[in-house]
Design a protein that fits this description.
Helix content is 24%, strand content 29%. By secondary structure, the protein is α+β, with helices and mostly antiparallel strands. The radius of gyration is 28 Å and the shape is globular. The N and C termini lie far apart (60 Å). 54% of the residues are buried. Bound molecules: beta-D-glucopyranose. Beta-D-glucopyranose binds next to helix 3.
Length: 765
């Protein structure tokens, strides 16, 4: 039976901090009694402004982390529900909640603390199947703000003083009186916001990594130990620490993605994120174990340091393990090929997805930013939707986008959830996430819900673009009052010099794409698509009039101008080939490198292949010098870098403060590796891989490739191998679907036109 909690009473404490000072976690507990064991399931529903962990009778009820995540707290928060029957006992029971700051009151996005509210609060109910309330948040709860988590903040880190541990504080036989620090919990004013059930998967600890010590120093002068550890993988997560040391020893853990030239950890790119956790020992003589709760860091390296006591017999022993945290999205896609560096690129992309999919899709997990940048997410969603099932994940995040949009005349902000009250429109490629993300999710998963939920948002954004940002139909015109966008962000040439494509061209191109998606969405939803197709036609005309020359080719001689014009079908069919050829020339003139940024890079290989330049596409894909995908791989990257030149042997670290080593945007190339290199594609007219389009296009000297995917219909896969001139292809087509196979022209296609469900091993020569 579905129970809709009412959230009448919320609890809090007087602990506030300020916009600059962070606070301890606060512990709440309540005792309750059960005359007999409940006959049926008991469910706990909890909602939070802040973050909460729940314990019953001394046991955590789940390993969900950062509950309830990061909604747009100005309008909404989420609740989660748990079956807690196994934790209950006949007679006395106790429930405990540890309440942290999280995004609600902590530092977020280059701002101060307390962006949404001054102190965290929560509300919960425990109900049986007959809807009887067993416990709720009422005046019988006690709180204690002198527990061991003395500071907690996502960006800054967590400080834990084990000497302050509260003992069995969430057990029934514990005395919670004022004399040991427990006071009556404060009933908070009921917040005016919507409380929805969370649809996105919760963040959980997912993988662990062993530490390899890479340096061990003792500074005699300061009696200070510093040991540095390498986990071999850049990730988002935190350290599980084991320590044996005298009472009061504080172990400080600093996190970093990369090492400086002298072998010390490089933290300049974290900007104001302290990213430091501290554990202070009880000193029982035994190993003590600890993992922070309300923080995460982006790191591969950790530097542990502590002061040594004068008594030399009291040495400190430490042992570290890294725990990668990410949203519990089912893993769906596998991709590999015969090129080891490309396989590393695939792994790096997967890890940038894992490192940035913690409840919302963030740009990066390490510096003082970690925002849901819309441009990055739209560039990457197609790749993300292959590696993992991200349908529910994006559905929830798009709710935040619509919340942010609602107070902006239809404008879509550059990131969401919003921090602070006003942000300009995100502009071309950023705001357009409102079109691209729902549409891509629909193509991959076939669920119309995401289209239904976002259709109005698409319409509102189209109106905003036309009314506010267009001048004579040109979007991002210098004379428009609106923010003009970020352009083809971070595009550079092989000298590291920025490459600029006009904001007007980029804006008008994305406007056309947005209108096209809205038209297609209207068709899928059975609505009138005509006005959107008419608008699309008008935008295409404007584009041609303003940005194509008399020969029907882009006037601007940048790769990005050609890529976008081709990808969004803005050049007339008659000049498409010539535009593709010109793009190929521009790549050659750039010494066989792309010089595109966040917006054009995801499409460059697609349009080159589509216009007959497959060899060149592979040459760019396997290019090892900068700017290229394999340049970071050659330089030891284990995730995707934010910039093509985040680090170079000649110049070292990029001098700009904005320099992340875990930024998924450029990993968008994996979508091409799936659809074209391996050859597993969907059909937009019959989506979600109901019609599977196998179209392998080998090249680049590869002898093998394979893509496998758990679709909504079941497992599908293609694997190919070239041996002695014969093209061996293995296909898996799940029940309830059908497939077609398109081969490179050099092989004679003897496969049937329509391939029915089954497993096939085929050969072509
Ligand atoms: C973020 C990006 C984002 C950009 C907007 C940066 O600070 O890290 O990935 O899209 O700003 O230009």
């Amino acid at each position: 039976m579905k129970h809709n909690p009412t959230w009448n009473t919320w609890l809090t404490s007087p602990v506030r901090g300020s916009t600059r000072t962070t606070t301890p976690a606060v512990y709440f507990r309540r005792k309750f009694s059960l005359k007999k064991m409940p006959e049926a399931k008991v469910t706990l529903h909890i909602t939070v402004l802040g973050l909460a962990d729940v314990e019953i009778n001394g046991q955590r009820i789940s390993d969900d982390t950062f509950v309830p995540g990061w909604p747009d707290y100005r309008f909404r928060t989420y609740y989660r529900s748990y079956d807690v029957t196994p934790f209950l006992e006949k007679g006395d029971n106790a429930i405990g909640v540890t309440l942290g700051n999280g995004w609600y009151t902590g530092y977020v996005g280059m701002m101060y603390r307390q962006n949404y509210g001054q102190q965290p609060l929560f509300s919960l109910t425990l109900v049986d199947e007959k809807k009887n309330t067993i416990v709720e948040t009422d005046e019988k709860w006690r709180y204690n703000d002198h527990g061991p988590i003395v500071e907690n903040d996502i960006m800054q880190g967590e400080c834990y003083d084990a000497r302050l541990e509260l003992g069995a504080w969430s057990s029934p036989d514990y005395t919670a009186k004022g004399r040991n620090g427990w006071y009556r919990a404060f009933i908070a004013e009921t917040p005016e916001l919507t409380v929805d059930p969370a649809v996105a998967p919760a963040v959980r600890p997912q993988e662990t990594f062993e530490a390899r010590e890479i340096s061990n120093n003792f500074d005699f002068h300061h009696s200070h130990y510093t040991r540095t550890f390498d986990f071999g993988q850049n990730m988002a997560g935190r350290i599980r620490l084991r320590v044996k040391g005298p009472c009061g020893t504080s172990i400080s853990l600093r996190h970093a993605e990369i090492l400086d030239a002298d072998g010390s950890i490089y933290t300049t790119n974290l900007r104001t994120a302290r990213a430091t956790d501290t554990y202070t020992c009880k000193g029982t003589g035994d190993w003590e174990e600890w993992e922070p709760r309300f923080t995460f860091h982006g790191f591969r390296y950790c530097e542990a340091s502590w002061f040594r006591f004068m008594d030399l017999n009291k040495e400190v022993e430490v042992s570290l393990e890294a725990v990668a945290l990410y949203s519990d999205m089912p893993r769906t896609g596998e991709l590999e090929c015969s090129h080891p560096l490309l396989n590393q690129l695939i792994s790096n992309t997967r890890w940038s997805q894992k490192g940035n999919f913690l409840d919302i899709p963030t740009d990066c997990p390490q510096r003082d930013e970690r925002l849901g940048w819309t441009g990055d997410a739209q560039a990457f969603i197609r790749t993300a939707a292959f590696f993992h099932d991200v349908d529910a994940f994006f559905r929830q995040w798009l709710t935040s986008i619509r919340d942010s949009q609602s107070i902006h005349d239809g404008a879509v902000p550059p990131f969401s959830p919003l921090v602070g009250w006003q942000m300009p429109d995100g502009g071309p490629g950023w705001g357009d996430a409102i079109f691209i993300c729902p549409w891509t999710a629909y193509l991959c998963y076939g669920d119309k819900t995401i289209l239904r939920e976002n259709f109005q948002g698409m319409c509102d954004y189209l109106k905003y673009i036309e009314n506010v940002t267009c001048v004579d139909g040109v979007r991002s015109h210098p004379e428009s009052k609106a923010y003009r966008g970020f352009g083809d962000w971070l595009a550079v040439d092989p000298m590291g010099v920025p490459v600029t494509t006009s904001y007007e061209l980029i804006g008008t191109a994305f406007h056309a794409y947005g209108a096209e998606i809205t038209a297609r969405t209207a068709e899928v939803l059975g609505k009138d698509a005509k006005p959107f197709w008419m608008l699309h036609g008008k935008i295409v005309e404007t584009f041609r009039k303003n940005f194509l020359n008399e020969q029907g080719l882009p006037k601007e001689q940048t790769q990005a101008a050609h890529v976008l014009a081709l990808q969004f079908h803005l050049v007339p069919d008659e000049t498409r080939q010539a535009a593709g050829d010109r793009l190929a020339e521009l790549v050659k003139e750039n010494n066989y490198h792309m010089n595109t940024g966040f917006l054009a890079t995801p499409y460059i290989l697609t349009v080159l292949e589509d216009t007959g330049h497959l060899d060149l596409a592979y040459r760019i894909l396997t290019q090892e010098t900068f700017p290229s995908w394999l340049f970071p791989v050659k330089n030891g990257a284990t995730t995707i870098w934010e910039r093509w030149d985040s680090w170079t042997p000649e110049r070292g670290f990029h001098p700009d403060g904005m320099n992340s080593f875990n930024h998924y945007a450029y990993g968008a190339v994996c979508a091409w590796m799936v659809t074209t290199m391996a050859g597993l594609e969907l059909d937009p007219a019959d989506p979600a891989y109901h019609h599977i389009v196998f179209k392998p296009r080998p090249g680049g000297g590869l002898t093998q490739a394979r893509a496998a995917l758990q679709t909504r219909y079941g497992h599908t896969a293609i694997a190919w191998e070239i041996k002695e001139g014969v093209f061996h292809v293995t296909l898996d087509v799940p029940e309830g679907t059908y497939a077609t196979l398109s081969l490179p022209p050099e092989y004679q296609n003897t496969a049937p036109d329509r391939i029915e469900p089954g497993h096939y091993e085929l050969e072509f020569s």
